[in-house]
Structures are given as structure tokens and as C-alpha cells.
Amino acid sequence: MAEWNQPLQVKQVTFENRIVMAPMLPFGWPEKDGGMSEKTLAHYLKRAGKGMGLLICQALLVSPENDLLDRAGAYKREHLCFIKKIADACHAGGTRFFAQLAYAGFDASGGGGRKVTELSTEKMAEIGRDFVHSVRLLKEAGCDGAELHCAHGSFLNAVHSPIENTRQDRYGGDLEGRLTLLKEIIEGCRECIDDSFILSCRMGWTETLEGDIALAQAMEKLGVEMLHVSGGIPADRSLDIPEDFPYNAFVYTGTRVKQHVNIPVTVVNDLQTLRRGNELLREDACDLIAYGRPFLADPDFALHAAEDPDYIGCRKCKACQFRTDGDRCPGPPARK
Ligand SMILES: Cc1cc2nc3c(=O)[nH]c(=O)nc-3n(C[C@H](O)[C@H](O)[C@H](O)COP(=O)(O)O)c2cc1C
Ligand code: SF4
């Protein structure tokens, strides 16, 4: 049982509080050569160290391959500079900083893209090495951890999914086989994951809660040190949520996973207010509470929520403007 403002220690990394800014790519703000534009950097610097225990930046690419959106990456030494700037700003304000990592071009949640069955065994191994290289760069840039993007139909999510991954080689087969690439990534990162650096996974749900629990436990066994639970493959699934559970299926899944693992679990999606997130912490249903759009609409969401736990940062527009051009976000509703 915890309160939002109680610290959490994972190895030698202390999170000053339990509020997390979830990873969010501001779509429509093109970057160049995998670097981060002044505009995107300013977006992060405006939020860094502003009252959250952990800030996780958008999925940075581990390689320029398949990048149709001109996204920022973490695959060249030149990228260390912007990552370091965000890390330093976070640390100056008492916030821990993770960067999320992803491999582009796969969207098994319905957006098209390539299939993991198209890749040769050697290519799979090469992508694994790209992840390891990026994790090393994050560590060098001063991040407190890396979050491997294994949710939302992303590449690693597809590799872990029995629906998408019907490969016949060592990267496919049963759950253990489908986690071979993750195992290789973790083994490759061993020497850079010390007590001051955390390896986390954003885990995507499976077809069933039993499948989610099995996946989470297998990830923990491989050495994943924190889990951030979100949607996966299939993108929609029917789930019997108790009628008196006042949160959605994403959060419910995270709370169920939490009961079956020994590593910290972050829940996310439509938590909206600090009061709602804090209830979950009090019930020991999770360890950290993540907010996405509230931080997009209001860079000071955590500071405002600390003053008023019912503060709502985001208007929940039908289509979030940050999915096309964040400049059009109307910002937070007027405060009472
Ligand atoms: C504009 C936008 C971009 C996003 N980009 C990412 C991303 O890069 N990686 C990721 O794992 N989730 C991404 N997400 C999902 C968020 O991390 C979060 O799970 C989602 O917004 C639900 O939380 P919320 O209801 O508090 O906004 C994105 C969400 C939005 C709105
Ligand atoms: S106010 Fe609207 S555009 Fe802004 S973050 Fe919220 S949903 Fe997105």
C-alpha cells in the first residue's frame, strides 16, 4: 500500500513519487537524421522535472530503417546530445528519465506495416543487436533506464504474439521461443545494466489474462526489472471486468499482472486524475501510475494534480491533436 508521493526504490534508482509521464510521440513534428528538433526538445524540457517521479520519452528508433514518419532515434552518437539534455533537465527537477525504444515499420494493431514472419533469422538477430546498441547509448547519455516497446502492435509486441509470430526458427514457437529475441537483447545489455540503470518493458496484453500473466512472469524471469502494462495484440479483446472496477481494460490488465509478478508494475490509460491513480496505489493494485494526454495538454499536470487531486489536465478530445499536430491541442480545461 502506498501513496502517490511516497518514493519507490528499484535497485539504486529512487523515484521521488509514483507519477509517470507516459511515452508519447508528438506526431507531425518531423525530425531529421534521427535527431530531435528544437521544437520537440523544447516540448520535453517544458515538462522535464515538473513534479513527476519518472518521465518516459516517446519511442526512439533503434535504427533508421522503415522510418516513414521522420522520427527521433537513439542509434548514433550524435543522438546522445538531445537525450542527455532531457536527462539532465529531469534530474535537475528530481525526476528519473527513461527513454522508450522501438524498431519502426511494424504495426500489428491495424495500421499495416511489415510482418515479423518476413524477416530472416539473421535480420532478427541484427535488430536485437540494434536494441542493445541503443540501450548502451541511453545509459551513456545518463538515462536511468530503457523501456523496450513491446506493446501497441509494435515490432517486439508482434514478436511476442502467437497471432503475429508464426516463425519456424529459433525466434518463434512457444512463449519461450517467441521471447528468444528479448532474451538475447537482455543478455546483450547485461554489462551496461548496473544498479543505477533499469531495464523495463512496456508489455502488450495478449488474447487472455492468463496469457498476460504468463508473458509477464516470463519477462520477469528473463531479467526485466519493471513492467508498464498497456494494450497489445489483438488491439481489442473482450474482458470480464468486475462491475465495480471504475477503470478500463488496460488498467484492469495491469492490476491483474501486478498480482502475479515481483517487479514493479506501472498501470496506464485514462486514469485522468491523481485521485483515481492514488486509489490504485492504496489498494496495492500497482506500483506506479502513468498519465499520457494530461501531460500533453498541461506540462505542469503533476504540479497541478499535487495541489488538487481531482485536477483534470486533458479535455479528452475525440481525436487527440497530438496524433496529427500537437500545436492544435486546446490545452487543459480552465481551472476552478
Ligand atoms: C499522441 C500520442 C502519442 C503516443 N505515443 C506513444 C509512444 O511513442 N509509445 C507508447 O508506448 N505509447 C504511446 N502513446 C500511448 C500513451 O503512452 C498512453 O498509453 C495513452 O495515451 C493512454 O494514456 P492516457 O489516457 O493517460 O492518455 C501515445 C499516445 C498519444 C496520445
Ligand atoms: S486536450 Fe485534446 S488534443 Fe490536448 S492532449 Fe487532451 S485529447 Fe489531446
Structure commentary:
This protein has 336 residues and is an alpha/beta fold. It is 32% helix and 16% strand. The strands form three sheets. It has an eight-stranded parallel β-barrel with strand order 3-4-5-8-9-10-11-12, surrounded by five helices. A two-stranded antiparallel ribbon has the order 1-2. Strands 6-7 form a two-stranded antiparallel ribbon. The chain is globular and about 60 Å long. The model has no long low-confidence stretch (mean pLDDT 96). It binds flavin mononucleotide and iron/sulfur cluster (SF4). Flavin mononucleotide binds next to strand 4 and helix 10.
Q: What descriptive keywords fit this protein?
A:
TIM Barrel; globular; eight-stranded parallel beta barrel; 12 strands; binds flavin mononucleotide; Aldolase_TIM; binds iron/sulfur cluster; 336 residues; alpha/beta
User: What general outline do the C-alpha atoms trace?
Assistant: globular
How do the helices and strands follow one another from N- to C-terminus?
EEEHEHEEEHEHHHEHEHEHEHH
The computed structural class is alpha/beta
Mean pLDDT: 96
Q: Write down the domain tally.
A: 1
| Low-pLDDT windows of residues | none
Count of distinct strands: 12
Q: What ions, cofactors and ligands are bound?
A: flavin mononucleotide, iron/sulfur cluster
Q: Distance N terminus to C terminus?
A: 31 Å
Number of discrete helical segments = 11
Radius of gyration: 18 Å
Organism: Guopingia tenuis
Domain NADH:flavin oxidoreductase/NADH oxidase N-terminal: 6-306
InterPro entries: Aldolase_TIM, OxRdtase_FMN_N, YqjM-like
Cofactor: FMN
